[in-house]
């Protein structure tokens, strides 16, 4: 996937979260609701996160250097990992702390209607961001489930935005429920309970993102379908079979392929070189992101 779709989703989330963060904080000042404060910090963290994702896209486009000969494509994984950590620390930890404090020391809300109006508007804005991310993701998701897309995608930005927006929408529902129940029952403890629910939700999402981004940052290979296609294209022409193969994503749009190939016997040097060139061309035609291909020719020493 080109960065365009991811950038559109990030910008939609950035604009929505920046506006929502301001509105929520104003709502907290009017109401004193811990749910509103937790949601304000959550939206502020999300706004910062989108800025980091954009920074990662920009720095990943730097040219390769002698010190970094394979380029900087993994910057996008690094900044996505930082986003997951920020979601956990700024979002989850703060909300849990604030929620527990409010449960232990409940305080009555003032002007709860202001909070309800702001939360409903925020749900509309977050919904716009969420459906934008879903629309961009559908272009590359294929037939896999949404959970499968989040687990298997080698492009970090869209899964991050999808999970962030999902957490934001559910968090807003929890905040709305907390404020509403606190007003209906006259018991402000419900506001604290809603805040704890927000913190727990953000913690789960953050852990999922941390695990997935860590895996990408360490280095993941081609998908099963890509690997099958690569092996099929390599084992053609004068190539008798693939002896062994290793693949790794150097960035979301750059795949490294290294393989040892068994060639037909009695080939001249020129024929060996042509067979290798042809194999590379076949792979690139079917898997365009396989930009770096290193092939080692060998004789087939399989026992008869």
From TrEMBL:
Domain of life: Bacteria
Coiled coil regions, renumbered to chain: none
Localization in the cell: Membrane
Organism listed in the record: Amycolatopsis sacchari
Gene Ontology biological process: zinc ion transport
PANTHER family in alphabetical order: HUEL-CATION TRANSPORTER (PTHR13414), PROTON-COUPLED ZINC ANTIPORTER SLC30A9, MITOCHONDRIAL (PTHR13414:SF9)
Start and end residues of each Cation efflux protein transmembrane domain: 10-217
Transmembrane segments annotated in the record for this chain: 9-30, 77-97, 109-131, 160-181, 193-211
Name of this protein: Cation diffusion facilitator family transporter
Membrane topology recorded in Swiss-Prot or TrEMBL: Multi-pass membrane protein
Main location: membrane
Molecular function GO labels: monoatomic cation transmembrane transporter activity
